[in-house]
Amino acid sequence: xxxxxxxxxxxxxxxxxxxxxxxxxxxxxSLEQAAAPQAPRCPACAQPLFVWVEARGWGMRGDELIYRxxxxxxxxxxxxxxSAEGAAAMLDRSPLRAANAASLQAWLGAExxxxxxxxxxxxKLTPAxxxxxxxxxxxxVERIRQPAGAGIAAMWQTLxxxxxxxxxxxxxxxxxxxxxxxxxxxxxxxxxxAITGLAAIPTALLAVLLEGGALLARRGGVLEITSxxxx
Length: 231
Ligand SMILES: [Zn+2]
Hints:
By secondary structure, the protein is α+β, with helices and mostly antiparallel strands. It folds into 2 domains: 1-34, no CATH class; 82-229, no CATH class. It is 36% helix and 19% strand. The protein has 8 helices and 8 strands; from the N terminus they run αββαβββαβααβαααβ. The chain has helices at 7-12, 31-34, 84-88, 104-109, 127-137, 148-161, 169-175, 186-216, and strands at 16-19, 27-30, 49-55, 64-69, 75-77, 96-99, 139-145, 222-229. The protein has a 3-stranded antiparallel β-sheet, with no helix packed on it. Strands 6-8-7 form a 3-stranded antiparallel β-sheet. β3 (49-55) and β4 (64-69) form a beta hairpin. α6 packs across α8. The radius of gyration is 20 Å and the shape is globular.
């Protein structure tokens, strides 16, 4: 029995994605076939990475390309893809807090997701990526928590990013990295300040509701991973 005669088996294989209408043409391609030649590899599961979001000249940031692994969900910026060993070394710290690329806020925000801030080029993990990296690191994952406070704060910032010209406006302005004349100009800066002031409370309430639902569905924005060396 060849795989060709069992399309149902193909669809349940996590390494394969089905393209086109399933009813019209039951055709599947592997991630390898769908990937661009020379595509970088996921440090957790070694599958090819695909472009997830592309932000061009957004605010004070330059062009930016974020990759995501279609297999384990890990996300990482172009030019900052670590080796498998480098990514696994993240787990040497325990507990480790990391942005969850398999979260409601990552899906909702996409290029406006608060975790994609200019100062953070680190890998955005997922529970599935953590499992794979822990094997590479020779560690055992004891617990993955989704802290509510950190998740709500990140959801709040993500919602504000959907409204403002500059991402993470308050943090960037407060740190002095974003000045009125820089970024997208003086007018955009003051519009962002006004929007942030007006929208702060409604978006905070919405963030509590959305992140509360996300936590129930285990799709919180922040992961706290506790691991220990395997014995
Ligand atoms: Zn992966």
